[in-house]
Design brief:
Distance between the termini: 24 Å
Strand order of the largest sheet: 2-5-1-6
Largest sheet: 4 strands, antiparallel
Structural class: alpha+beta
Number of strands: 9
Order of helices and strands: EHEEEEHEEEE
Amino acid sequence: MIMIRSIVRPEKTDNVLASLMDAGFPAVTRFPVVGRGKQRGIKIGEITYDEIPKEMLMMVVKDKDKDYVIETILKAARTGDKGAFGDGKIFITPVLDVYTISSGIRETPGGVIEEVAV
């Protein structure tokens, strides 16, 4: 299993979520973030905005679905055909275990599912 964290423009978030839903990946955690990329913010006149609002979308998928989910996010989050500075980033990290709080079920990347004694 892998965790995919995408940072996207706020105006692209609904498009990304709809694309993921259509692709069969409805489970996403969404939260607002601020930051800046390589462009170091935006300068408008004399004012520099170095903390730009973005949305972070976080999800866990099976390894075999990684490339498809990334492609879905890239297509939905990109501005225009070629993209633009500030369109965002996607970060991929391995997930060791997943615990479902309500049931106490533990799932491992190898597909082992067991109930954890609480």
